[in-house]
Design a protein that fits this description.
binds nicotinamide-adenine-dinucleotide, binds the ligand CC(C)=CCC/C(C)=C/C=C/C(C)=C/C=C/C(C)=C/C=C/C=C(C)/C=C/C=C(C)/C=C/C=C(\C)CCC=C(C)C, disordered N terminus, alpha+beta
Length: 604
């Protein structure tokens, strides 16, 4: 894997990455092996030596292609969706090339360094890192390429600091403890008249989770697997089929009457789905509301950004290639891929073109870019299938985020602080731009992220790109400053008194920053339904109507979230491997299944 600011070292222990003049982090993994990886500063201003490393790496790939190499699969983008796909595919012997536009892998799960601190670009809240069951998808994806990471258990998922009401004059404060019973007791102590409703709603979430956690999670659009799972575990499959078209809000309203508690459930959903409970698929709610207690929230030692680094290392050790600073400008297609007759005019993806004009060929192309970037940028307009036009009607872009990475003196973070916090002062503003404030203090879990005597406070709040467009340089800088001041003031009021005095460094990112560095149109966090959806029924799986072109990541089933995109990676790898004849398949059943799914999506 090539990254700017890093050079490859051969050591007796294998290959490791060392950043130029920066510390190399070395972590003992629980397995007793030593996983070493660097934390290079992902600054696009590369030195000539790192630029040389990148050029050499790319030239190696280009040379192979010029000799007629056809990869089994080219993955466009190295977010957690793309990397998980690549990891599962190389583990089955496929020849996979991952091309990443940015200078390090990871996308939203990336990192950057300043002032001796390692900052998570996105959220620091990691699901899917447990040790048991089948839903610990990050653990399992790493395992498939022979990797294991040390993680730090978080005693709670979130500390909510919510609006005051007559019943809760000092504000509704709820801690989502790691132990389920402790959380239910805490919530029921705030709403004693609703204990039964609380237990029933979260009880249904457990039904979903237990069903998911009993399946071998793979592609739902591969019929041999799907029927196999139905045969092995009919009850779990029927339970999932029952909840698949449902939303969390409808289930909550069946059991709960108290409007303040229903607002709390809205916030429970909004803070990871960016929509209220009425529009949040019940399957995803079941996954999130139970994995936090079952596997727990676990922070990877060294930062979230180490996950993609370690996974990319594993992919390469299994024979794949991960090339950074490789911007795919076009997905190459040919007509007639269907093999004559009516099918003969079908469009087929055959490779990609990089922004310097280099063409690379593959049997499958897997796009980890958002659907907006894939079908409005990378695929020629005339090749865009009707099913994608329909997707753009069913789903719209969620807002992006304003983020402030703040380094503070330690006094401000007291013993009673939790890592993850949500702040809201007025229920009516829950979904507004700059309404809900998300706060992570990852140094509570892993002090090694900052120099001794410092904490990192990462505050972020949703906002739209429009409110950051058309500003002069000065206006943009002033607006960033003003918004950061406002966030700090809210945090001081909510749970970090004295914060403004304790700031030693801060860096503010806007939707424009996210658009630029994450390469996501308008910096969007992911797709959200345009109208009330039928649960997950409208969310497309990984195959597209362009033959041999797949999508993976949060524009595919089951949507946003790091273990959601990890699932989409498991599913995408399985479907693509079957199409490449590296997993079992049945052509006739495949066709029937595609028809059924197209019909079901037509209902939404
Ligand atoms: N803590 C968390 O829960 C957490 C943290 C990070 C991410 N996430 C989730 O991950 C989801 C996003 O993951 P994802 O895998 O779908 O996508 P992603 O946006 O994270 O990664 C996509 C990658 O593709 C690259 N890319 C885009 N266009 C490209 C092109 N033309 N050429 C080469 N590379 C290109 C981008 O640079 C990016 O690295 C989000 O919904 C978010 O919920 C969650
Ligand atoms: C096909 C038919 C008709 C029937 C089949 C039935 C069947 C077998 C169905 C199976 C369904 C399956 C397998 C579904 C799988 C679903 C999965 C794996 C869903 C996973 C969802 C995970 C989610 C949504 C995770 C989200 C996590 C997020 C977004 C975390 C980020 C959090 C933040 C950004 C908040 C940060 C907060 C603070 C406070 C700082």
């Amino acid at each position: 894997m090539a990254v700017v600011g890093a050079s490859k070292l051969r050591t007796s222990g294998g290959t490791r990455w060392q950043s130029r003049g920066r510390r190399v982090q070395c972590h003992a993994s629980p397995s007793g092996t030593t996983a070493e990886s660097s934390s290079p500063s992902p600054s696009p201003s590369s030195s000539s030596s790192s630029a040389r490393t990148l050029r050499a790496r790319r030239e190696e790939v280009v040379l192979e292609s010029s000799k007629g190499k056809v990869w089994d699969a080219i993955v466009v983008g190295s977010g957690m969706g793309g990397l998980t796909t690549a990891a599962k595919m190389v583990a089955k012997g496929a020849d996979v090339l991952v091309l990443e536009k940015y200078v390090i892998p990871g996308g939203s799960a990336g990192y950057y360094q300043r002032e001796g601190c390692t900052f998570d670009v996105g959220s620091s809240m990691m699901f899917g890192f447990g040790t048991e069951g089948t839903t610990n998808l990050l653990t399992r994806a790493l395992e498939s390429v022979g990797k294991k990471m040390e993680t730090i258990p978080d005693p709670a998922q979130i500390h909510y600091h919510l609006p005051s009401s007559r019943a809760h004059p000092d504000g509704l404060k709820v801690v989502v403890h790691r132990r389920y019973e402790e959380f239910v007791d805490e919530l029921a102590s705030k709403f004693p008249h609703e204990r039964e409703g609380i237990e029933k709603f979260y009880g249904d979430c457990w039904t979903v989770f237990d069903a998911l956690n009993s399946l071998d999670l793979k592609s739902l659009e591969e019929p041999l697997y799907l029927f196999g799972e139905f045969f092995k575990n009919p009850v779990a499959c029927l339970q999932l089929a029952y909840f698949l078209p449902q939303n969390a809000g409808d289930i909550a309203r069946k059991y709960i009457q108290d409007e303040e508690l229903l607002s709390f459930i809205d916030m429970e959903c909004y803070c990871w789905s960016t929509v209220k409970a009425a529009v949040t698929p019940m399957i995803n709610a079941g996954m999130v509301f139970c994995d936090r207690h079952y596997g727990g929230i676990n922070y990877p030692r060294g930062g979230v950004g180490r996950i993609p680094l370690v996974m990319a290392e594993g992919i390469e050790e299994k024979g794949g290639k991960v090339v950074c600073a490789a911007n795919v400008s076009r997905i190459l297609t040919e007509r007639g891929g269907g093999g004559g007759g009516e099918e003969g005019s079908k469009v087929k993806a055959v490779g990609v073109e990089l922004s310097d004009g280099t063409r690379l060929r593959s049997r499958a192309v897997i796009s980890n870019a958002t659907r907006w970037d894939t079908f409005k940028q990378l695929v020629e307009e005339g090749d865009v299938p009707q099913s994608e036009v329909d997707f753009f009607k069913r789903y719209k872009k969620s807002p992006s985020f304003i983020t402030a990475h703040i380094v503070v003196e330690p006094s401000v973070v007291t013993e009673s602080c939790y890592c993850h916090n949500i702040v809201l002062e007025d229920w009516a503003k829950l979904e507004d731009g700059r309404g809900t404030l998300f706060v992570s203090i990852p140094t509570i879990l892993d002090p090694s992220l900052a120099p001794e005597g410092r904490h990192i406070v990462h505050a972020f709040t949703p906002d739209w790109i429009d409110s950051w467009s058309g500003l002069s340089k000065e206006e943009y800088a002033e607006k960033k400053e003003a918004v950061a001041r406002e966030m700090i003031a809210r945090l001081e009021e909510a749970f970090l008194p004295g914060l403004s005095e304790a700031v030693v460094f801060k860096e503010v990112g806007t939707p424009r920053t996210h658009m630029k560095f994450l390469n996501r149109q308008d910096g969007t966090y992911g797709p959200i339904p345009s109208k009330r959806p039928l649960g997950l029924l409208g969310m497309p799986f990984n195959r597209t109507d362009v033959e041999s072109l797949y999508c993976v990541g949060d524009s595919t089933f089951p949507g946003q979230g790091v273990n959601a995109v990890a699932f989409s990676g498991f599913a995408c790898a399985h479907r693509a491997l079957a199409d490449l004849d590296l997993e079992p398949r049945n052509e006739v059943m495949d066709r029937g299944m595609q028809g059924l799914f197209a019909f079901l999506r037509g209902l939404v």
